[in-house]
Amino acid sequence: MAYSITTPSSRSSLYSSGLEPVFGRLFDQAFRDFFAASDSPDQALKKLSMDVTETDKGYTVHADLPGIEKDAVKIQIDGPRVTISAESKKEDEKTEGGKVIYRERSASQFYRSFELPAELDAAAAEAKLENGVLTLTLPRKAQAVIQQIAVK
């Protein structure tokens, strides 16, 4: 088994190769994301994690909405653009003979807007929320059939 020893001179190749700024930005972003949890309203908005699959009839979207009630989810469809937003409210817990000394669970908001490659049929779209996962079935809008007319 071969071992290698990292010396200051061998580390300089990483820095001289131009990768230092890339790794620096990645580390800074990871650090900000890790410590981003805050009670401030401008940081309470969370990006919605989702998967989109294409079928013969349209698209299926699976989005994670942990702790969200179905009445708090809003979905808008405008042509090929889909917007999903949801909010969980912070509830005041009543404690018998005690007080809350630490709280991490609070109100949160989710938001995601994306565009699909085809126009969507908003009237035929369906949404279902089960176990914190939103499932959207988004059929494509029927394309106008081009007909050729014979000249008489």
Task: Describe it.
This protein has 152 residues and is of the alpha+beta class. It has a domain at 41-93 and 101-139: Immunoglobulin-like. The protein is built from 2 helices and 8 strands. It has helices spanning 8-16, 20-34; strands spanning 45-47, 50-54, 58-64, 73-78, 81-88, 108-115, 126-130, 133-139. The strands form 2 sheets. A 4-stranded mixed beta sheet has the order 1-6-5-4, with no helix packed on it. β7 (126-130) and β8 form a beta hairpin. The longest helix has 15 residues, at 20-34. The N and C termini lie far apart (86 Å). Keywords: Stress response. This is HSP20 chaperone (Small heat shock protein).
Largest sheet: 4 strands, mixed
The strand line-up of the biggest sheet is 1-6-5-4
Structural shape: flat
Please estimate the helix content.
10-25%
CATH class of the domain at 41-93 and 101-139: Mainly Beta
Helix segment tally: 2
Determine Rg (CA atoms, Å): 25 Å
What is the straight-line distance between the termini? 86 Å
What is the typical, i.e. mean, pLDDT? Answer: 78
Specify the structural class.
alpha+beta
Question: How large a portion of the residues is in β-strands, by DSSP E?
Answer: 25-35%
Indicate the CATH topology of the domain at 41-93 and 101-139.
Immunoglobulin-like
List how many beta strands DSSP finds. 8
CATH architecture of the domain at 41-93 and 101-139: Sandwich
Order of helices and strands: HHEEEEEEEE
Protein name: HSP20 chaperone (Small heat shock protein)
Domain SHSP: 39-152
Keywords: Stress response
Family: Belongs to the small heat shock protein (HSP20) family.
